[in-house]
Write a structure and sequence with these properties.
Two copies of one chain form a homodimer.
Chain A: H1 3-13, E1 17-21, H2 38-50, E2 56-59, H3 61-65, H4 69-82, E3 90-97, H5 101-114, E4 119-122, H6 128-135, E5 141-147, H7 153-156, H8 167-175, E6 184-188, H9 196-202, E7 208-210, H10 220-227, E8 234-238, H11 240-243, H12 251-272
Parallel strand pairs in A: 1-2, 1-8, 2-3, 3-4, 4-5, 5-6, 6-7, 7-8
Helix pairs in contact in A: 2-4, 2-12, 5-6
Chain lengths: ~280, ~280
């Protein structure tokens, strides 16, 4: 999917919501556990319930990987199901991979071929040759970690270098020599919304994937104030607040209600910014 | 496995060799492709051939993941096979994972429970709470990326901070407040052997996992000169040079020959340093 199409979907759905499929088998409704593949069955019902409200879905690979080969089967079924709506939703494997070139090439194969995701999250620590194999795929995206939503982001990402830039700013600047705003996005946590001003100085046109709204404490209004651009430029992720809104048989209905609240708030943001 | 046991194995086998199971299905001998699980069959024969010469094995998870659920089955069979020799070899999942706390917890579960590895490689970019869930397992290890063997290491890892330390040095220093030399090791590439002097100033007692000898150009003698400590403190990884020494039916014999050459060089290093 190209940037233009992402923005078209945002305008059509009046939403820049990304639903995080952090599908924890210990938290899904009990009645699903007797189905053949409870994780996929849960995801399918969440997707069906939220499809009109979300422009992106982001399975968190750790939750699948922790179940071994079975988890990978559930992940495969989930992306195959999402790909029935290929023009309608952008798909992100939240995997935070990154290794030397010949190995990153295999990770790219895993997420762009074996599993046909539009995008994968990548960690920048190992530099250009760990990221570039993901950029060699047409119409696929790297979502590079810049400033994450967790406390640990202060350990290194906020460190100041001798050139007076912080590490995450150097990552943003350097990464622009590797790709462009048609094949790269950046992760910037909603818990650090005020820093989106600094981020936008460096990457005015890139899409940003913003986790941390909801359970982690980030506020949508702040993210929009500091981060929005002329093509919206934001995919705001919500996971637990939506998918675990209820642990009962009404989980999909409750998930839709939560997604709908966020969509309405996002519609206001888009209207205020004259984007719809 | 504890540090003392790793050193005992090093002295007994006169080797600090780690065999990297970067098992590329496009490179394994053709006659194996008709077996039920060619990747596992290849690994099994490599393990059998090199078990007396190596103290550690390190499957590179990307190679398995690129094959989807089938690859995860092969990885599971490989670690289960290795765990028949639990006191004899240290096992490392080369996965380079790392995410916010609740997600890293699931990655830890994947590699320490679903797959019973001794250690997993972790990327430091997201800081303490992305690493600490791996450290909560008794007798399990985090192998944290510090200074990697690839060209891209210069993009960020070698960046100088305002305190005049390079980023990888800050990672080494900071990580010591999270764990200790009984549950953490660090990745330092053999292609930067001279920098092991700087690394050893910060982490004199930790084991280092050193990739990059062989195919990537690093030299064992240099690694030993700059990196060895009183408990050896080195696990030197070799992958392609050993496992793909031959693409024919003699692949295991040739792998053993290559591993044996490295073991003999390592024995000399251990003798010169009065460790055996």
């Amino acid at each position: 999917m190209r940037k233009k199409e992402i923005f078209e979907n945002i305008k059509r759905k009046k939403s820049f919501l990304c639903v995080g499929l952090d599908t924890d088998i210990t938290k899904i409704p009990k009645h699903l556990l007797s189905t053949e593949d409870p994780v996929f069955e849960f995801n399918k019902q969440i997707i069906d319930a939220t499809l009109s409200l979300a422009v992106a879905y982001k399975p968190n690979v750790a939750f699948y990987e922790s179940l071994g080969a079975d988890g990978w089967m559930s992940l495969k079924k989930t992306i195959d199901y999402l790909n029935q709506f290929k023009d309608d939703v952008f798909t992100i494997a939240d995997a935070k991979r990154g290794d030397i070139g010949n190995t990153s090439k295999l990770y790219a194969k895993a997420f762009f071929e074996t599993l046909d995701f539009d995008a994968v999250t990548v960690a920048p620590y190992m530099g250009e040759d760990s990221v570039s194999p993901f950029l060699s795929y047409q119409d696929k995206w790297v979502v590079l970690l810049a400033l994450t939503s967790n406390k640990g982001a202060d350990d290194f990402q906020n460190s100041v270098l001798i050139n007076n830039n912080r590490l995450f700013e150097t990552v943003l600047t350097t990464a622009q020599t590797w790709g462009n705003d048609e094949n790269m996005m950046f992760v910037v946590g909603a818990t650090r919304a005020e820093m989106l001003t600094d981020v936008r100085k460096i990457v005015p046109n890139h899409f940003l994937l913003v986790p941390g709204v909801g359970a982690q404490g980030g506020k949508l209004e702040d993210v929009a104030t500091y981060g929005i651009n002329k093509e919206c430029g934001l995919l705001v992720n919500a996971s637990r607040n939506i998918i675990f809104a209820s642990a009962d048989k009404d989980f999909a209905i409750k998930a839709k209600e939560e997604a709908s609240k966020l969509q309405k708030d996002m519609q206001k943001v888009l209207e205020i910014n004259n984007l719809i």
